[in-house]
Amino acid sequence: MSVFFTTFTAVAMLLAIGMLGYWMLSRRVIAGSILGSLSVLAIDIALPCLTFIGILTNFHPEKNTSWWTLPLWWIGSTGLFLLLTFICSAVARREFHREFRVSLLFQNGIFFPLAIIAEMYGTNSPLLVELFLFTLFYPAFFFNISPLFFSKGIKVEPAKVFNPVLIATILALAVRLAGVDGFIPKFLIDGLRLVGAMAVPLLMLVLGGNIHMDMKGSGTPAYAENLKFVIMKNLVFPLVTLGVLMVVRPPYPVAFIIMMQAAVPPVTAIPIITEREGGNRNIVNQFMVASFLFSLISLPAMLLLFSRFFSP
Question: With a threshold of 0.85, does the pTM exceed it?
Answer without folding.
Answer: yes
